[in-house]
Specification:
alpha+beta; binds FE2/S2 (inorganic) cluster; globular; 16% strand
Amino acid sequence: MITVSLTVNGRTYRADCEPRRTLADFLRHDLGFTGVHVGCEHGVCGSCTITLDGESARSCCLLAVQVDGAEIVTVEGLAENGELHPLQESFRKHHGLQCGFCTSGMLATAVELLKENPDPTDAEIRQGISGNLCRCTGYQFIVDAIRDAAKRP
Ligand code: FES
Ligand code: FES
């Protein structure tokens, strides 16, 4: 076992894990951040996407030991002071989710997308979320939600 220390949503955690433990499993099962969803487990679906040191990353493709000392934001860390993040609010308003399985990864991707491009076109939004699969929504409502969130203060 190896001790891994991470800052998750502003709080520092230390826990022991096997060297082969993925970051997704470490966050979800060892630290209890069940908003980290695991689908394909090999980097294809995007459902496990989190923010790692300011950039989106697929937590199923990393080992927890690789990111010792990193700062991570999961979907549990997006809301502040009881207020939904503007993207969460916009997903709610535009019905950008159905089953919700893709949503935490979609939000992490969208956070980075709007940070890099605060006024994206629909084509740029579609390109930006092209690595995140959603089997429910048909994507249009997600695009609507991200476009609307870009206009929010
Ligand atoms: S579970 Fe990580 S990309 Fe699918
Ligand atoms: S809302 Fe179900 S997979 Fe996207």
